[in-house]
């Protein structure tokens, strides 16, 4: 078993690439076993009409894109939980018994159990998930974040009755940290363009002000300057979702804006809200 193991616990196909593709590529290149939980199949995603004829369903397309990105990034394990997508908060589609948000509201212990069993299978020292707001307030992001945080501690509890697998306690839990400066610049630009930042996105249901208000402190900054191309290649797999926004900037500007991918350490709790780590494995005790 490789000494270092890292688990990303996310919601949709593309979350791994658009948000964390560079840092994942970095750790894989350094020999870390990186695994991914993708809780949903992305079947509620909006896709261009030109792409609909290549697959029978949106789900098939999004899953194929997920496997493409997984191959590009080099995940050790990919766990597809197969829940249907939820819509944004208060969407009618969230009443679908197959969607993640419905399951989280009605059978949270089952969702937590799945994450616990994944943790006990992979045995990661470090786990990464969304922040408490789910990045931009998406119910699926919030559901998997809350499930992962509960599972982080239950996985090491020998009295937990939900799994027969051997208990295993991860050592560190991080949230992906939204790039505060870039988000604040975008907020200013939206207002200058006359846009309502509380009604953004294709369906006008993304509250960008709330995104900025829910930015968490950054405790770890991991250098990704050598992995922008790998980030692009993984993001390009998700062509139906636009292939990622980072590549829209010229490379010289990206090297300035995206020198690091940032993280909030939620366990162990930091003594102060300042950057004190350049590696997610700082302080991790590795097995002999």
Automatic annotation (TrEMBL):
Q: Cross-referenced Pfam families, in alphabetical order?
A: PIG-L
- Return the InterPro entries for the record: GlcNAc_PI_deacetylase-related, LmbE-like_dom_sf
**GO function term, MF aspect, one:** hydrolase activity, acting on carbon-nitrogen (but not peptide) bonds, in linear amides
Question: What is the protein name given in its UniProt record?
Answer: PIG-L family deacetylase
Q: Which organism is it from?
A: Phototrophicus methaneseepsis
Source organism lineage? Bacteria, Bacillati, Chloroflexota, Candidatus Thermofontia, Phototrophicales
């Amino acid at each position: 078993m490789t000494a270092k193991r890292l688990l990303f616990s996310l919601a949709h196909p593309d979350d791994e690439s658009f948000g964390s593709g560079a840092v994942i590529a970095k750790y894989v290149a350094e020999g870390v076993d990186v695994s991914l939980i993708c809780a949903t199949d992305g079947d509620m995603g909006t896709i261009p009409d030109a792409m609909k004829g290549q697959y029978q369903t949106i789900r098939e397309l999004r899953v194929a894109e997920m496997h493409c990105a997984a191959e590009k990034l080099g995940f050790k394990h990919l766990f597809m939980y197969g829940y249907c997508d939820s819509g944004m908060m208060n969407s009618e589609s969230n009443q679908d018994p197959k969607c993640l948000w419905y399951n989280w509201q009605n059978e949270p212990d089952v969702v937590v159990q799945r994450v616990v069993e994944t943790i006990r299978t992979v045995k990661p020292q470090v786990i990464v998930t969304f922040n408490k707001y789910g990045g931009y307030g998406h119910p699926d992001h919030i559901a998997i974040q809350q499930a992962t945080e509960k599972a982080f501690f239950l996985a090491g509890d020998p009295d937990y009755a939900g799994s027969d697998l051997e208990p295993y306690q991860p050592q560190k839990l991080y949230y992906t940290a939204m790039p505060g400066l870039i988000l604040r610049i975008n907020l200013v630009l939206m207002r200058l363009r006359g846009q309502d930042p509380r009604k953004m996105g294709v369906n006008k249901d993304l509250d960008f002000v709330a995104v900025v208000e829910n930015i968490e402190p950054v405790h770890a900054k991991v250098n990704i300057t050598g992995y922008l191309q790998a980030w692009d290649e993984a993001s390009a797999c998700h062509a139906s979702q636009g292939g990622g926004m980072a590549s829209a900037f010229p490379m010289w500007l990206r090297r300035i804006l995206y020198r690091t991918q940032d993280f909030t350490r939620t366990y162990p709790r930091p003594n102060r809200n300042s950057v004190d780590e350049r590696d997610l494995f700082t302080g991790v005790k590795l097995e002999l």
